[in-house]
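REQUEST ID: PR-0412
SUBMITTED BY: lab tech R.K.
PRIORITY: routine
TASK: structure prediction, single protein chain
INPUT:
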Amino acid sequence: MLNKLQQQLVHLVCSEEGASRADLARLTGMSKPAIGALVKELLAAGVLQESAMAASSGQGRPSVTLSLSPDAACAIGISLIDHQLVVVLMNGIGEKMAERHLTPEVEIPALIQQLAAEIADLLSSAAVNRQRLAGIGFALSAFVDAAQSVCVQSALMGWHQVPLAELLSRATGGIPVVIENDTRALATYEKTFGHLRKYQSAVAISHGSGIGSAAVIYGRIWRGAHGGAGRNRPLHNRAGG
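STATUS: complete
OUTPUT:
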């Protein structure tokens, strides 16, 4: 388990592509020796790895950049959108290791058992030890209270106030579970691993049976005063366009 300072450094390495020890010291305000000690711990634990040499802006030697190790951990991603259920196993840098497409069970208890069985089979098939699994992320087209890990309302599934994270964590033997609105999950992924890494503020838009948006403002997901910013709205087709 990483402490808060280590978690902060890992987050910065993810969000600041090509960061060096000097960059981390500048961004955190910590001394270079303190950053060096923390990085040494994370390298020894296999969480970070040293990457390419960054060109020096001065007369000194080029800096060694840091990146997240693909083997540091694994995670399960679940997507439930438009009655399509996808379960994905990813490595520490967001690359897919395995993927399953399923027809979701309708009733909540049956769906939870379906997911628990699929996750166990996915880990077994990929020969991944459960100890490497950092957690499960569950994205769905719904109004989600991410702080309480509750699906407040899903018009698609007919759900109201469903504690999805608690139910799935219990069914998988205590694996940490985070649930999120699908568009916010997309924005979070792109900000961490994808096209939005270099932007402090951006908007992600998704469309399917509805249209939704998620705003990243100064590097953080904007949820609005009551958590409903960017909620999905249904699309209605009209004759003639």
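NOTES: Residues 108-125 form the longest helix (18 residues).
REVIEWED BY: pending
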